[in-house]
Amino acid sequence: MRKEKSIAQHIQKVLRGQASPQEFNAVNDWYDHQEEDELLIQDFKGRTKSLIRKELFNKIQRGRISNAPNAGNRNIKRIFGIAASVVMVIGLGFVLSELTQKPKVDFSDKIAFQKVENGVGMVKKIRLPDGSRIQLFHNTTIEFDRNFSNNRFVKLEGEAFFEVVANPNLPFRVQTDGLTTEVLGTSFTIKTAGLEETKVSVKTGKVSVSNAQTKFELHKDQQLIYSIGAGRVQQITNRDLVFGWAEDKIVFENSDLFKLVKVLDAWYGIQIEHNLSPNNTCRISGTYLNMSLENLLQAIQYSLPMTYQIDAKKVNIQFKNCN
């Protein structure tokens, strides 16, 4: 744990332009040894990835990291990656949290039950001790105890995508309000809004969803919609609409513009001002992959008559001919 805490501190110094040559090289060496699937937190909060990259590049060019030797392609490439993501390790007693904007490291090694929370502006990725992976969508919380490897049990509030490693001797269970989802090995999403509604959607394999009153079995491309004692199973017709967010896709399907504004606010963690009235008539459909906020707004302009202005704390969008 001490080593990871030291690396987290080095990353903070690099982002601030205060790293020594040894710290700079330590971060590069650490990054070189990380597997791609361990790069777990993507940063969209406040600043886009491209802006962070430009900022770090300018720091290097201006010599703010003046002691860093050979700050060339290798260093720049590695630090760009770090600016876009940091590592979260579960099961060793610590959590490396978001390091951009307000650098913060949370080392929760004194508790038996661990909680991971995700706000807006990022998708947080976790790899569990059994090798299973979870992606937390915006405003989502997940809990599990230190004995996870012995029970494979988690609690969820919000929305998450699960890729579960198969273990025929120990099912993987997810508890939400009123329901338990159980799998041996598969990939699926769960979206819960408290007791009002829970959606379980299967991407691969099959899952079992149950409570004291009822039980459902779902297969690939099926979705359960459960609400206060009643549930129905339907076929998934647009996989991107359900699973796309876990692949960095923002997806709209005949969505109204209030939905558009809500999605932008959640994905980029920035306040959206607009001129929409309750009676607006415009709709939007489309899939947008891994875009900065400005690039996304430019792309949307091809579909909608609108203008926009971005500053550090908010975005103002003026829609035309929609009210």
From TrEMBL:
Signal peptide start and end residues: none
Keyword Acyltransferase: no
GO molecular function list: sigma factor antagonist activity
Residue ranges occupied by any FecR protein domain in the UniProt entry: 117-207
InterPro entries according to UniProt: FecR, FecR_C, Ferrdict_sens_TM
Membrane spanning stretches: 79-96
One Pfam family per UniProt: FecR
Residue ranges annotated for the Protein FecR C-terminal domain, each copy included: 249-317
Keywords: Membrane, Transmembrane, Transmembrane helix
Gene3D superfamilies given in the database record: 2.60.120.1440, 3.55.50.30
Ribosomal protein among keywords: no
Protein name: FecR protein domain-containing protein
The organism's taxonomic lineage, starting at the top: Bacteria, Pseudomonadati, Bacteroidota, Cytophagia, Cytophagales
